[in-house]
Amino acid sequence: MVDTINFTGTVTSELESRITFVLSTPDAPRRHSLFRSVIHTIILCGVLIITIFVVIEPSSPGPSSDTNGTFTLEDDNVCLLKVHNGYHLYVNGKYVGALDTIPDDFKM
């Protein structure tokens, strides 16, 4: 066993030092820690409210490869003609295709 020289006069174990540190009261006045707690609570509540009501979504047009050959159906550029076995769809005066029934999205 190796003897050590103790310059402080008392020997405390590391575990005892940790327990004493955890159980001791802080030296700072109580109002500073209460003030910080209130400020932190306000900031956290503000961040929570912002994340509930504000949603940041990027917006950009689709790539041209996805929009080639597509068209938009609007009231002034669409015509549905009834034929004996369904409907013919015309967009901007050009025949697009046949429909057996009118989808609910087309009905007004």
Quick overview of this protein structure:
This protein is of the alpha+beta class and 108 residues long. Helix content is 35%, strand content 17%.
Q: Could you walk me through the main structural features you see in this protein, from its secondary elements to its overall organization?
A:
It is a single chain. A three-stranded antiparallel sheet has the order 1-2-3, with no helix packed on it. It is built from three helices and three strands. The longest helix has 24 residues, at 30-53. It has 108 residues and is of the alpha+beta class. It is rod-shaped, with a radius of gyration of 38 Å. It has helices at residues 14-23, 30-53, 64-67; strands at 78-83, 86-91, 94-99.
Q: How far do the termini sit from each other?
A: 95 Å
Proportion in helices? 25-40%
* Portion in strands: 15-25%
Quaternary structure state of the chains depicted: single chain
Query: Can you count the helices?
Result: 3
> Which strands sit side by side, in order, in the main sheet?
1-2-3
> Could you give the count of β-strands?
3
**What characterizes the major β-sheet?**
3 strands, antiparallel
- Overall mean pLDDT score? 78
- What does the overall shape look like? rod-shaped
